[in-house]
Automatic annotation (TrEMBL):
Superkingdom to which the source organism belongs: Bacteria
Protein's UniProt name: GDP-mannose pyrophosphatase
Keywords (A to Z) from UniProt: Hydrolase
Protein family: Belongs to the Nudix hydrolase family. NudK subfamily.
Amino acid sequence: MAIKTISSREVYRNPWTRVREDVIERANGKRGIYGVVDKDPACIVIPLEVGAEGEFVYLIEQFRYTVGARHWEFPQGGWELAEVVPEELARGELLEETGLTAERMTLLSTLQIAYGVMNQMQHVFLAEGLTMGKPDPDAEESDLVVKRVSVLELEAMILHGTIVDNCSVATWGLYRLWRERRELDLRR
């Protein structure tokens, strides 16, 4: 390893987050510190509808305290558990935040969120065959707004900076690559 951990101490903990400070030694022998945020696994879901009218996705808007503003994003979150079944987590978050259930869930990939400061993986799912039900948001999600938008509108929101959540933007890019490869494979 290029960096060796000399010592580690937890400096903060709550039900969602753990913060630790590690004394490290680099390959060149120089010591330093790393502040690390540890979070349990999360998921993000693209709820996709394809029909005669075109392609649509569901987004949620909520107030994000850390940036002091409301923003649009794909449904996402975690259960504050170190061990989760990714598809169960994705189905649970989708239902909780949007009221949607899906016939099919496809795991597209697992990404790391902000790995320069945080240790949290995020499972990326495509949800298809959607049925609308009643959302059941957590107490801190009571202000969620659900919106169905066309794929063209979604991409315009990304390009115009209306969607600034890096996880949502990365998820959409991943989906587009996955779909393009799948279409190429079907043509062969």
